[in-house]
Write the structure tokens for this entry.
Amino acid sequence: MFYFPSGAGSINTDGSGSGGVVSNIQLSAPATGPYAGILIFQDHGDVNGARIGGDNSSFFDGALYFPGAQLTFFGSAGGSGFNVAIADAQSIVLSVNVTLNLLGGAGLPTGVNLTRNATIVE
């Protein structure tokens, strides 16, 4: 799990691969513990935009949380398809040859359940 506290910056996977993209990024959230299912968490007070790029072999298994920032997905010259469980951001931008597949619970690590800790508050 990657955590970015307020004012600490954000993630940017620009690189020197095809189309300026780091290729073959394969990240999975922890399957157990208090942060199970969360891959990247950026503090709600942090407005630094995040840029996530990759190629067709890249995946980001887990939830991506950027509530105060723009989250941009970008692909390689040949196109990129991202499989992400959940993406929560102030805004989401798809830029340069990219397809975003939001998988919900199917995109979480094995054993992580979306309704595991549901609470009703009045």
In short: The CA atoms of residues 62 and 108 lie 5 Å apart. The chain is about 0% helix and 45% strand. Residues 117-122 have pLDDT under 50 and may be disordered. The chain has one domain: 2-107.
